[in-house]
Design goal:
The chain has 6 helices and 5 strands, in the order βββββαααααα. The chain has 192 residues and is mostly helical. The strands form 2 sheets. Strands 3-4-5 form a 3-stranded antiparallel beta sheet, with no helix packed on it. The two termini are 19 Å apart.
């Protein structure tokens, strides 16, 4: 693991292309040749990185290019307010909620701003974080399976508090708005 200033880390993980198509217990994970075996908790699990990235790209296009910026903003909030959640879990949760939120606004012919999208995400995520999530069609293992129900409830409570705060600051603008949203996302640039 490489560590940089401001708690930025880069972890290099060995990965092998899946040429087996099944787990050691015989559980099938087709198609063979797609996905990578990576180590996790002293076992090898499948990670479908290429498919997952393609899925997020497609979902991003379906929701007017708002998904990827939302993921980036929410990862900033994660580092600042709920760092115990894995980034992949947040990406999967965001990829399942943001397109539905954007569609909801579109069906009502309402414009959607990033502040209302972020508020809506936390409002919906408080319930959705309790369930195990996986991208549809992905071979990736359920990487949030190690989260206990108690930890999921803690995250749900955190998301509820963030949603309540976001609701209060939705209509703020200018310096007051910037300062209020900075409490959600933290400093805009790393120091160092």
């Amino acid at each position: 693991m490489l560590e940089y200033s401001d708690n930025i880390t880069v972890e290099l993980i060995p990965a092998y292309v899946d040429q087996i198509g099944e787990y050691s217990d015989g559980t099938q994970i087709p198609p063979k040749g797609r996905g990578y075996w990576i180590p996790r908790n002293n076992k090898w699990i499948i990670a479908d990185y290429d498919y997952d990235a393609e899925y997020v790209t497609k979902q991003n296009k379906l929701c007017d290019e708002m998904l990827v910026p939302a993921i980036k903003m929410l990862k900033s909030a994660k580092r600042h307010l709920f760092s115990g959640m894995k980034s992949y879990h947040l990406e999967v949760l965001t990829s399942s909620l943001v397109p539905a939120i954007v569609e909801y606004f579109q069906q009502r012919n309402q414009s959607i701003s990033y502040p209302s999208l972020i508020y809506s995400f936390f409002l919906c995520a408080k319930d959705n974080v309790l369930a195990f999530k996986k991208l549809p069609g992905s071979k990736s293992s359920i990487l949030d399976a190690d989260l206990t129900q108690d930890r999921r409830r803690e995250l749900a409570d955190i998301f509820l508090k963030i949603a309540a705060y976001c609701e209060k600051i939705l209509n703020l603008d200018g310096k007051e708005g910037i300062e209020a949203w900075q409490k959600v996302f933290g400093e805009p640039f790393p120091k160092g």
